[in-house]
Amino acid sequence: MATWYSQGSGLWSTLSNWNDAANGSGSAPGSIAAFDDSPVVIQEGHVVEFDVEDAVACDGSVSGWTTGIAGITITGAAAGNTPGELTLTDAVNNTNCVYGLRLKANTAIVGTNVAVLGKVTGGTSTVPLPSGAVHIIQFLDPPTTGGFDLTYLSLALYAAQPVETAYVTTAAAGIGDSVLSVQGRLTGCNPNTDTTEWQVGRAVRVIRTTSAGVNTQATTIAAVGDGTITLSDNLTIAKPAVGSTTGQRTHINPSDDESAPCSAFAGWDRSRSLSPSTRQPTTTSTWSAAFPPETISRPAAPRLSPSGVSSAPPEAEWVWEI
Q: Residue 26, exposed/middle/buried by CB under 10 A (0-12, 13-18, 19+)?
């Protein structure tokens, strides 16, 4: 198992920009798949733009990263010097692909203990990552030792707000049904034309709120039609037609393990970022506002959304893993 060291700034997919010796005296990887189950080091002064695509399921079937990268170290720098940086590309995805950064269980993205912290970046507050650049960072085991270790790492991520984070049912569906008639809750849009937000393979939650409580069923989208979505699993509870609903629905959800849907963050009502100078411990939590009575909701946005601490409601809990 080689450790791959960056040799300069450029695209991750440029194989000649990597070497199994820090000083470049070794060999470059023979393929993108060679990174699987290997540690990666982004050296001081290098800006590596992540552009490796995978299937929508983020399962390593396209990239070859079935086990996952065995941790990423982003090297910091002495005062006055430039640290290493991992930045997310803003290029639009190819059809039926996402940018999939898959991390092996019990590994993390970390920095080094120096004056200027290594950085993970994506977009800016004024130019966020566009909706067509879908990034998924999957930590296979964040509840224990995986995730972003922000002790010596700067994290600043900005993404465009999703158009629709929730759909409402427009016709009743019974237990055992899998095809739901839906429309966008905010815009009334058709899922057949809302291809950025709702695609085959994406994780969804079907939610019904009654006086007895909230019933939530997690599944994935098997097909998208004209005003319909087909679920991978049959409904476990009937869903009446509800027409329009009110109330903003926001949810943040990390992808915790290989059995969970590969995910980033869900839709936000505003952009936030973690300040490059802010250090936070690695924790896992969620923030969810009230649900409309009947929704089909994306628990994970089809792009990497920003995380942060400023302007959070008092009751909010934040996710430091993605």
A: middle
